[in-house]
Design goal:
binds NADP nicotinamide-adenine-dinucleotide phosphate; single chain; two-stranded antiparallel ribbon; 8-stranded parallel beta sheet
């Protein structure tokens, strides 16, 4: 079994250590339906990211209607499982006590392994459904199918309400959109609250679909550090102690670049300047 050479820029999710930059998989294996045309490249890309030393992979039952999870499963199987942290998510149509358990079992089957962090993908209006799903997940922790419970796209109020609904285990993470261009977790108090609660904020769409990689103002800031615009945009996020970012990258070049966003930090002044770039 290959080991993932875990890098020194580590963050906490629950009691586990994960790299500050992970790998997103929306589009890997398809979007809303499966796409089998690029399977080999996709698996190779994920394996390359693991070989570089990124140990965090984000997937969901929704991605490629399950095919993304299959490709993640294929990519991780040659590696020491305990070196890797896999996130998956239950889609709202599968919320509810029995449905959520069934969905988690199907995800774990496609992955060929347990799920380290299982998230409620999006909130629904009916809080009882959320509560029921969270309680089902607590039982899945006891069964060993998932290790930690989290949510995604929950605002501060809903996050607090969900925390109160837990019976045995804590919500250890909230995965939300967070980028230099979309700093709502900072302005709504969500980030500060999660920091105080020692909860991981998993930042999705951190490159704004790649557009922050083409920002000349960020590139100028990066020059002082020998870093690129994309690396500045990602470093801005992981600068916060409880934030990890999960850019999706399909090429070796992008994976290497994103990996290089770790292991250094922007100065406070440059971080402030970066805000003015977007
Ligand atoms: N929980 C949720 O509701 C939710 C919602 C959206 C996304 N997510 C997760 O977050 C992940 C990331 O978000 P995202 O995919 O929406 O957007 P993103 O990571 O901001 O952008 C991905 C795009 O950026 C490009 N890219 C990656 N690294 C680059 C680099 N160094 N330089 C230039 N371009 C680069 C990629 O191109 P290549 O593919 O060509 O490398 C891809 O087109 C998703 O894959 C998914 O796992 C979660």
């Amino acid at each position: 079994m290959k080991r993932v050479r875990i890098f020194n820029d580590l963050k906490r999710i629950g009691d586990d250590k994960v790299t500050a930059i992970g790998m997103g998989t929306w589009g890997i294996g398809g979007y809303e339906s499966p796409d089998y045309s690029r399977d080999r490249e996709s698996v190779e890309a994920l394996k390359y990211g693991l070989e570089l030393g990124m140990n965090l992979i984000d997937t969901a039952e929704f991605y490629g209607a399950g095919h993304s999870e299959e490709l993640v499963g294929e990519a991780v199987k040659e590696f020491e499982r305990e070196d890797i942290f896999i996130i998956s998510k239950v889609w709202p149509t599968h919320f509810g006590y029995e449905e959520a358990k069934k969905a988690a079992r199907a995800s774990a089957k496609r992955l060929g392994t347990h799920i380290d962090l299982y998230l409620l993908h999006w909130p629904v209006d009916d809080f009882r459904k959320i509560e029921e799903t969270l309680h089902a997940l607590e039982e899945l922790v006891d069964e060993g199918l998932i290790r930690y419970i989290g949510v995604s796209n929950f605002d501060l109020e809903l996050l607090k309400r969900s925390q109160e609904a837990m019976r045995k285990y804590e919500i250890v993470a909230n995965e939300v959109k967070y980028s230099l261009r979309d700093r709502w977790p900072e302005t709504t108090g969500l980030l500060d609250y999660m920091k105080r609660e020692k909860m991981a904020l998993i930042a999705y769409t951190p490159l704004e679909k790649g557009s922050l990689a083409r920002n000349s103002c960020l590139a100028e800031i990066g020059e002082r550090y020998g870093k690129t615009s994309a690396q500045v945009a990602l470093n801005y996020l992981i600068w916060e102690e409880n934030v990890v970012a999960i850019p999706k990258a399909g090429s070796r070049e992008h994976l290497e670049e994103n990996f290089g966003a770790m292991g250094w930090r922007l100065s406070k002044e440059d971080r402030e300047k970066a805000r003015g770039c977007v």
